[in-house]
Write a structure and sequence with these properties.
Blueprint (H helix, E strand, L loop, with lengths): L5 H6 L8 H18 L5 H15 L7 E8 L4 E8 L3 H4 L6 H13 L4 H10 L2 E6 L6 E5 L1 H7 L6 H18 L3 E4 L2 E8 L3 E8 L2 H16 L28 H6 L3 E7 L6 E6 L1 H6 L5
Length: about 290
């Protein structure tokens, strides 16, 4: 199934249900007004302004992080403040660690919600100042237009970017493994194989693993179950109601033409229980975008 861009989704039949017609109408009016205001601007400057307006109206939903965007149009310099869900990744980053900063910013700019902005920055010859508040002494890095072009992999097709983004996202996720999810469950690694992204979860409690094994068929039959509704394996004595949490959104996985497998094991990963979602289920039914 081919990934669908934000613009294509807006043009889809039924996209105007509920409040959508009003929201779409307001967006069109605002964008039209902005277009008139920017008519005297250079083409590149205008494209940057319109895309930032779009992202302000429809904020990006980035895997792993929350971003705040801005721009100094007089200087031709965009700004991005990044708050990672797990700040460990930037905590010890030094002021000279541009290599790590490039990997992190590349991951963000390859995300489908920020690709258009990265492209506009390159074509308008804008630089980008990125701030990491959780790093020691709040590190800040300036990226030139050429560096933005490099890290965002400017020039690749949407399909190629989907694959490159997923590859980088899996690498990033593995940097923070093992990750304790509670209830004696640990996310140990993530594998990007030929047809699926596979999350490995180690379950310490034997009773919880036995319960999951006994109910695996019924869980797999519930194709409408969202990933964030998939309960963590737990024994009957455990009362917590926590859920499996992978930080790569299923929509990012389906865009790369892959399915998702949640693989639970106790001793050896070879003796596992797999909860499987096809790429179509990732895109249409998981709802975790």
């Amino acid at each position: 199934m081919k990934g669908i861009s934000r613009d294509e989704m807006k043009a889809m039949p039924g996209a105007g249900s509920g409040l959508k017609p009003l929201m779409t109408a307001v967006m069109c009016i605002v964008v039209a007004a902005m277009s008139l205001m920017c008519s005297s601007c250079g083409g590149g400057n205008r494209h940057v302004q319109l895309e930032l307006l779009h992202l302000d109206f429809d904020p990006p939903m980035i895997d792993f992080a929350t971003v705040s965007l801005g721009c100094d149009y007089a200087k031709g310099e965009g700004t991005m403040t990044v708050h990672f869900d797990d700040p460990r990744v930037v905590k010890s980053m030094s002021a000279n660690d541009k290599k790590t900063a490039k990997k992190l910013v590349g991951l963000l700019l390859m995300h489908y919600d920020l690709r258009a902005l990265a492209k506009d920055f390159v074509e308008a010859n804008y630089s980008l100042r990125v701030n990491f508040p959780e790093s020691n002494n709040e590190k800040e890095f300036l990226f030139t237009p050429e560096e933005i072009k490099e890290v965002s992999k400017y020039g690749l097709s949407e399909e190629e970017l989907d694959r490159e983004y997923l590859k980088a996202a899996v690498e990033f996720e593995n940097q923070l493994c093992p990750r304790d999810l509670g209830n004696g469950v640990t996310a140990t690694k993530v594998v990007n194989d030929k047809k699926n992204v596979v999350y490995y979860f180690q379950v310490k409690n034997k009773a919880a693993m036995d319960s999951l094994r006994a109910n695996a068929d019924s869980i797999n039959a519930q194709t409408s179950m969202r990933v964030d509704q998939m309960p963590l394996p737990k024994s009957d004595s455990q009362k917590e109601n926590d859920y499996v949490s992978g930080r790569i959104r299923p929509n990012s996985i389906s865009r790369a033409q892959k399915g998702l497998i949640l693989r639970f094991y106790s001793g050896s990963p070879k003796k596992c229980v797999d909860i499987k979602y096809t790429k179509d289920e990732c895109y249409c039914r998981l709802g975790w975008y």
